Amino acid sequence: MPALRWASLAVLMMAAVFHARAATAAPWCSDGKVVCVSPQMRNAKVASPLHIHAQITANDDVQINWQLKDSTGASLAAGSTWDDPEALKRISATAEAFDFVVYLIDPARSDHGALTLTPTRTDVSSEKMNLPPLVIPVRLETATSELTILVPEDRAGYDADVEAYADEPVAKDFAPKTPLVPQKVTVMKVDESSRMAATAQAVLRSMPAQGGPWHVESLRLDKGTAHLKLSSDAWAGVSYYWLAVGHLLEKTLEQFPAIQRVEFQ
Q1: What is the reported pLDDT for 24?
Q2: SS percent in the chain: helix, strand, coil, step 5
Q3: Beta strand extents in 103-195 (DSSP E only)
Q4: Which residues form the domain of 161?
């Protein structure tokens, strides 16, 4: 009998553990459960790059605005699927998947913060309507890394070089007269495997785009060639911006001994 009681107690304890694990495995969702994330994201350590994975439950198209802030209220990064539509994919008639990666530039001022995901939909009058947000408490990396990017010594002169090139009757390699100079940038700590991509993101941050922020989606190195994929938005005059920032990206990344050339995707 004692052995039987101990066996029964063991079964009850195993059942309790199973139910506890099942409870903790429930997704973390906004009111109405329009947007949900893995429960592991709550109080997770956030470093660079930031990976955001979420599921949106809706029959119609729902977009996501997101923002990462530290506990001082300072915004570390923000974005929207209105600007990055490829980050959102429909996986069924009633669900969409949000999958996004961003290299964080601004260092955190505190070790705690919040990642807010705000779903929005467009009503019949084409007005954007925010739905209840999902606020995810997170822990933040407070250590920093120092990156080196190349910037124009004279921004006005560099802009003039871009305009002069655009007026050339015959296409040729862009060779601006304005020299590029190294600039140190302090960013949220990145490991060596992400250093090249974070450096490219720092270049984009130094050249704000009128049509909205550009992001590094990925950087893959293959036999000396860096294959760089960017998420971007088009606007009138984007070709001038692309010429200017593309040159800076190439020259900055070619500072890495492993990179001989850069290809954009």
Answers
A1: 53
A2: 25, 40, 35
A3: 112-122, 128-130, 134-140, 144-152, 180-188
A4: 144-264
Which single residue is written with the structure tokens 């911006």?
241
- The pLDDT of residue 59: 84
Residue 19 has what pLDDT? 47
Q: Residue 20: is it exposed, middle or buried by C-beta count within 10 angstroms (0-12/13-18/19+)?
A: exposed
- Rounded distance between C-alpha atoms, residue 191 and residue 147, angstroms: 12
Cα gap 24→121, rounded to integer Å: 30
DSSP label of 251:
H
The one-character DSSP state at 190 is B
Give yes or no: residues 88 and 69 share one domain: yes
CA atoms of 252 and 248, how far apart (whole Å): 6
Eight-class DSSP state of 104? -
| Cβ(26)–Cβ(40) below 8 Å | no
Alpha carbon distance 84, 64 (integer Å): 10
State the DSSP H helix or E strand holding residue 103, giving kind and residue range, or none if neither: none
- Nearest CA-CA partner of 210 in 180, 187, 183, 244: 244
C-alpha distance from residue 4 to each of 1, 10, 15, 105, 204 (Å): 5, 10, 17, 61, 68
User: Would you state the pLDDT for residue 20?
Assistant: 47
Mean pLDDT (the chain) is 88
Residues of the chain with pLDDT under 70: 1-24, 171
pLDDT of the residue at 141: 96
Which CATH number fits the domain that encloses residue 129?
2.60.40.2550
Question: What is the domain count for the chain?
Answer: 2
Q: Beta-carbon neighbour count of residue 28 at 10 Å?
A: 17
Output the six-digit token pair for 199: 């450096």
The one-character DSSP state at 59 is S
